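Subject — a protein and its fold
Encoding — discrete vocabulary of local shapes:
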Amino acid sequence: MQRGSSPEETEKVQRSIIIALDWYDERVVRGIYNYAKEKNWHISPYLASGRFVPHGWPGDGAITCYGSETANYIDHLYMPVVDISHLDMDRRVPRVRVDNDAISALAAEHFLSRGYKFFAFYSWPEIPVNTLRQIAFKKHLTERGIPESNIFDIPQSDPKLLRDWAKHQADILSKFSVLPRPLAVFAGQDNLGATLIEMCVRAGIHVPEEIAVLGVDNSELICEGAPVPLSSIRTRLTQVGYLAAEQLDRLMNKKINNRAAPVIIKPHEIVNRQSTDALAIGHPAVATAVRYIKNHFSEPITIEDIVDYTGLSKRGLEKAFEKHLVRSPASELRRVRLDHAKRLLTETNDKIESIAYECGYSNSSNLSCAFRRETRMSPRAYRVKYSSPELVA
């Protein structure tokens, strides 16, 4: 490619792009490749096996994740760069980032909706994004009225202990053993959450009954491979890669400059698995009603069915729900049904009519009405926006 070409001339030449990530996730790379295929870009193999590019290689742009392993290299990349990290850089470049404040708010609401009163953040302080999530998690909990004395910070073990499993486990469990239960733990990364679950299971600590654990990024192999499958926040990492490539395209075509505002991507949802599949409820009738809803939401049950099962009066059960869950039995039934509908819409190609029946609605119109009230979107629009491209196609 000739330097100094106009954007129109440049479009006629196949662009060559470098991906330089300090932190790797296949979904980010897949998003970049999806955009690259649309634009007929060439993704360079350089940096796949080492931190170097041959002198004089005529690259057009780079998508980077700034970190200790890549900092020196990225600082000296003399080409358009878009970065997806949260670290400060010596140079100003456009950024695409996940919304850590929204991620932490989602985690806080997830636990609050289940009635927890004690919370902990399990972090790896050496990973900067952990600190951002820790601060935001605590902020959202205190804004919702949780006293700071009920929120605990648990740092990862000293690096020297990480090489010795027994010492590492003893260190982490000693920190958790003094905390009240049931305890809701937000782990800054999926691998931290999965490791904590393994430690708890080996030590005879029940997950989620004693300690509920929530991770971030929904790395399926990690989450589903944990001894108790790990609930996690889906952070839309494929979109991070895709939009980073889109920003790089704009930068190379001079439609934006290096001072462009960061593109912030909100999380999609929480993927519920067994590690948080419990409600910290002190009222026996409310706990009974919640279990009944969980086991029968796919059936055409009514509020009267729930009331009859608990043995309380309708008014008595509603008052107990408001006190212990801050919502009504009807709201809880609707929440469980719609959560299941969201998973089916984004993870399957099932027809919407079929999804409605599986979630306890008599027809797709009733599902659509409930769905629009909560999300302001139709089920079909939700599927198009949040499903993987393979499912939508």
